[in-house]
Amino acid sequence: MAVEEKYEIVVGLEVHVQLNTKTKIFAADEADFGAAPNTHISPITLGLPGVLPRLNEAVVAKAIKLGLALQCTINKENRFARKNYFYADLPKGYQISQDQLPICEHGFVEIQLPNERKKIALTRIHMEEDAGKNNHELDPNFSLIDLNRAGVPLLEIVSEPDIRSSDEAFAYVTELRKLVRYLDICDGNMEEGSMRCDANVSVRLKGEKSYRNRVEVKNMNSIRNVKRAIDVEVQRQIDIYENGGTIEQETRSFNQADGTSFSLRTKENAHDYRYFPEPDLPAVSISDEMLNEVKASMPALPNELQRLFENEYKLSEYDARLLTEEKSTADFFLQLSDHTKNYKSASNWINNEIKSYLNENNLALNELNIEPKQIAEIIQLCDDDIISSSNAKLIFKAMMDGNIASAIAIAETMNLIQTSDADEMTSWIESVLQKFPDKVKEYQKGKKGNINLFLGEIMKLSRGTADPKKVKVMLEEKLK
Ligand code: MN
Q1: Across the chain, what does the average pLDDT equal?
Q2: 434: which of 215, 254, 300, 419 is 20 to 30 A away, CA to CA?
Q3: How far does the chain reach from its first CA to its final CA, in angstroms?
Q4: How many angstroms is it from 156 CA to the middle of ligand 1?
């Protein structure tokens, strides 16, 4: 048995998502990203003496939204706590977070694996403030600090150690990112740091009941790097155990450049955060009214839409998954389905033609200059055999290039209307057969596959307007 097969991987993830509120969690400073350094720093953000934090209600609403989407228990009474540690980017010397009584508990993230769906249980979701940002590159002699980010609201989502492979971790973070985007609470951009992930990793022998010491790995800036960092850490731990060593609890930083990690701190110098209830803030009390308001504002979630597309619209699991990857795509499909009953074709148009156009032109769906109704018109023309599917793409392209006429009008001006006019088709057939006398002889001697060559040439000659079924019948007749 390979060494890797002896062991079971145990991973729990802590994901921080930066909420897209207008202002910070405890101050009226703007919370958006990209302003000149240290311009969004009121006395509250700086933690000056005598100031008091005041909770931004939008943060609570967004936390409830995520909690509901993940089937969590919402704690209608919850509380902030001080997490004490000393670091240059933390103006107050403590972070206002939640400890004993977080806003959400339990719940799960349902992930899609190759052959099954699996529920990863959650421990909790809590609200907290972000710290500032150190910059070690701008100045050769000093580290600089930008406190614009200090006080920006975060949700920390803590999973149970239910994840059993780096692929499951990948699926978990992917699912969470999709969800926060659907809920419009965070842009989910890991590269820019608005979503950050730490992994608690341990391994144990298969069948072993208790968990072994775990190592926390930090600083992965993409979902792919979360997977890589876990693979690297698992291998490191297995190698140590196989050489008779032991793993001590520690925190390590992942280096994406070379795929290694280095120790940040071990158990001996681990932080003792000395949590205590935040005396400057009252307990958070969520009214039934607020809870109901948030419930009413919930959009359809990707899993619900996936089921709807499979069950009601009879799409394949694969098509439904592609359509629900982003909310804008699912919404476009729903709008399109108001105008056509050919759902399979609607799904194909979105997943193929439209998506590749968006990719090629680096556009988002909401920047697309076309209404779902126009796509429905094209689909109808194909279904009625008025245009061929390849000419349908030409009509789409004309629309993208700014032609605002109806699909049928474009088809007419561009001469794309399919014809079953016998004289016209006979003349196309004859000119193609005259062009390939050798191939005709081969066909008549039994090389029946040549018919596809003739058909292709006829379609080309007719610029896609020859009715393919009728022309084939006529061609076969002619070749006898
Ligand atoms: Mn945290």
Answers
A1: 93
A2: 419
A3: 65
A4: 6
Exposure string (b/e) for 41-75, b if CB count within 10 Å is 16 or more?
A: beebbbbeeebebebbebbbbbbbbbbbbbebebb
Model confidence, pTM: 0.86
Q: How far is the CA of 295 from the centre of ligand 1 (A)?
A: 26
Element (H, E) at 261: strand 260-266
| Model pLDDT for residues 285-310, shown as the tens digit of each residue | 999 999 999 999 999 999 999 999 99
Query: Exposed, middle or buried: residue 30 (CB in 10 Å: 0-12, 13-18, 19+)?
Result: middle
Residue type, 213: N
Q: Where are the alpha helices (DSSP H) in 361-467?
A: 372-383, 389-400, 407-413, 422-435, 437-444, 450-461
CB neighbour list of residue 250: distance below 8 Å, 6 or more residues apart = 215, 216, 263, 264, 265, 266, 267
Query: Which among 17, 31, 26 is positioned nearest to 65, based on CA atoms?
Result: 17
Give strand ranges (E) for 79-194: 81-84, 94-97, 104-105, 108-112, 117-129, 133-135, 144-146, 153-159
Q: Which long-range contacts (CB under 8 A, 24 or more apart) does 123-126 make?
A: 123/12, 123/158, 123/159, 123/160, 124/158, 125/63, 125/66, 125/67, 125/70, 125/72, 125/155, 125/156, 125/157, 125/158, 126/97, 126/98, 126/102, 126/155, 126/156, 126/158
pLDDT at 199 over 70: yes
Show the CA angle centred on residue 296, arms to residues 23 and 60, nearest 5°. 30
User: If you average pLDDT over residues 113-131, what whole number do you get?
Assistant: 95
**Distance from residue 240's CA to the centre of ligand 1 (Å):** 30
Contacts of the segment 138-143: beta carbons below 8 A, 24+ positions apart: 143/88
Token readout for 170 is 């990948």
**43-89 tens-digit pLDDT:** 999 999 999 999 999 999 999 999 999 999 999 999 999 999 999 99
Report the separation in Å between the CA atom of 158 and the middle of ligand 1, taken as the mean of its atom positions.
9
Do 427 and 468 touch, CB atoms closer than 8 A? no
Sorted by where each starts, the structural domains of the chain and their CATH numbers stand as 3-292 (no CATH), 300-413 (no CATH), 422-479 (1.10.10.410)
Task: Provide the pLDDT for residue 398.
Answer: 92
What is the spatial distance between Cα 258 and Cα 307, in angstroms, rounded to a whole number?
Answer: 41
Distance CA 44, CA 26 (A): 8
Residue 465 has pLDDT above 90, yes or no: no
Phi, psi of 252 (to 5 degrees): -125, 155
Q: How many angstroms does the Cα of residue 296 sit away from the middle of ligand 1?
A: 29
Whether 291 and 74 have beta carbons less than 8 Å apart is answered as yes
> How far is ligand 1, taken at its centre, from the CA of residue 227, in Å?
21
**Residue, of 111 and 423, whose pLDDT is higher:** 111
At residue 6, φ and ψ (nearest 5 deg) are -70, -25
